[in-house]
């Protein structure tokens, strides 16, 4: 479990470092709660600043965890944090409109998990021209921003590929094919995870290849159907890599329904109650778990720092932890699997 503790402690160190910088800005910590409005008294230069947080979708616990971190930062440092989301991760136009709304409200900062690496460049550019500081999280954009907070998805994906290889070697399988069950085509963070997974798999199990990939548009039922079809059509299928929580839940359902829990390993990204339950029952063999609470908390602090002309770190990577049945109950890991959540509004 040394890997998990090391990654988690690095996240904490980064958090402490950035909090220390913000304390230097505000000259004293504001008293607040996890509410979206923390007030401004005693918060110095950043007190009362309005920061909007725009997540990818409102219906995912991953993004609800990010909102909880953002709102906590607002309470801790006297910031007014607004929380917004499109109806789904595929609704890019709605996310663009949410940024337009933030510009109209005259906020000082925007923290956004972009649903496209390029389609939001224009509106984010307009926000920055209006003097609004923009921190992107989880997925980068191809245009400029004032900072980025997110997992190195290639590295984290490679961790997933290495674990898949270990699971297959335990079954004495060294040749065959793997399926990637993905959420949405063209999303940068997902592309990087899939690339990293292939690299990790090729490094440790060169005889095992990724032969098919399906996209479920972030729908659990579609993911389950696609994995079910792959199991039926490919009797030599060895395992499934699911690159987000929706894909992971769908893959686990299909594996269980086909009675393949002991035969087909599933390595999935992220964590939510359904994925955690599947991990406990063995329908998922390992989760590559990020820290979205960190994304939200540090994103708000970075936007607040930039809004008063302090320089936040340009890039922060809190790392990822590979979780399985053996370590899922350890205190540091359990905190990642069962973080607080908050909703839009």
From TrEMBL:
Sections of the chain in a coiled coil: none
Compartments in which it is found: Cell envelope
UniProt keyword Cell membrane, yes or no: no
UniProt key word Cell inner membrane: no
First-listed, main subcellular location of the protein, grouped into a coarse class: other
Keyword line: Signal
Chain ranges of the Periplasmic binding protein domain: 51-300
Family: Belongs to the bacterial solute-binding protein 2 family.
Descriptive protein name: ABC transporter substrate-binding protein
Organism, scientific name: Actinoallomurus vinaceus
